Amino acid sequence: MHNIHDTNHRPVLFISDLHLEPRRPAVTRLFIQFLAQNARQAQALYILGDLFEAWIGDDALDTEDPVIHGLRALTTAGVPVYVMRGNRDFLLGEGFSRATGAFLLDDMSRITLDGVQVLLLHGDTLCTDDIEYQRFRAVVRDPHWQTEFLAKPRAQRLAYAARARRESTEHNRRTDTARLDVSPHSVQQILREQGTRHMIHGHTHRPGVHRFELDGEPAQRIVLGDWYEQGSLLLCEGGRWQLRQLALGEVPTATPRSR
Ligand code: MN
After folding, report:
1. Ligand 1 centroid distance, CA of 88 (Å)
2. Full-model pTM
3. Per-chain residues with Cβ under 5 A from ion ligand 1
4. Which of 25, 85, 94, 210 sits most deeply, having the most CB atoms within 10 A of its CB?
5. What pLDDT, in 10s, does the model give residues 133-157?
6. CA of 128 to the centre of ligand 1 (A)
């Protein structure tokens, strides 16, 4: 029997790389509108990293912030929200989870979507040709480093985040684009290890659906788009998976893009 309340007839939505920050208020407004409208109709919302341009610790969280409020309203309405940490907001923690009702999702999580196993990643771990970035990642993902960092005064953490962002923008500018993309070898290796043939990730800001063959089987890698000149999402409904864009209501101000 078909039933309009059957959640299986609702889409599953995937987004990433919003890089929300005060100096791009139009994108924040678009996201809040997305939470209140599109996402309300969803079976689940997955945010695969870099929701925020920077996150210096849950203690800096403002419960009155419209983004936190919008996420809380969505989970309260019964839509499960899963949030993966990205390379910008890797310090999202239990405080964020409590304030929003969102579940924190580990990088490299597997879900069943339309009957197939799909591997979810932020995507930065696939960029293995970018040695300098992988070195930085190893440092800041170390639990001891994180404990020490979170113990520092807020002003010091903000200064570090600003510096890291400047250095990252500079690094991305002087590194050739191929090196900044995912390594095909790493993609294949991870799919083999995980025993899946489908992955969804963000990070590179190069949205697309890549179909290829892996050990004689069809495989698929879907890359989510960013939220700079538009909103971007992957909509999965009844076996159809489609990348979509959301129009930004107004002209965004030019800001340096980081990933
Ligand atoms: Mn990223």
Report:
1. 6
2. 0.93
3. 50, 86-87, 203, 259
4. 85
5. 999 999 999 999 999 999 999 999 9
6. 14
Tokens found for residue 34 = 């997305």
Tokens of 80: 């499960």
- CA of 49 from ligand 1 middle (Å) equals 7
CA 53 to ligand 1 center in whole angstroms: 9
Q: What is the assigned CATH class of domain 11-246?
A: alpha beta
CA of 18 to the centre of ligand 1 (A): 9
The token pair that represents 213 in the structure block: 């063959």
**10-to-85, 103, 182, 236, 239 alpha-carbon distances in Å:** 25, 20, 31, 9, 11
CA of 17 to the centre of ligand 1 (A): 6
- Length of the chain, in residues: 259
Residue showing tokens 């929701």:
51
Spatial neighbors of 119 by CB under 8 A, at least 6 apart, are 108, 109, 110, 190, 191, 194, 196, 198, 199, 200
Q: How far is the CA of 259 from the centre of ligand 1 (A)?
A: 5
Domain boundaries defined on the chain: 11-246
Per-residue pLDDT of the chain (259 residues; tens, 9 = 90+): 444 455 568 999 999 999 999 999 999 999 999 999 999 999 999 999 999 999 999 999 998 999 999 999 999 999 999 999 999 999 999 999 999 999 999 999 999 999 999 999 999 999 999 999 999 999 999 999 999 999 999 999 999 999 999 999 999 999 999 889 999 999 999 999 999 999 999 999 999 999 999 999 999 999 999 999 999 999 999 999 999 999 997 554 556 667 7
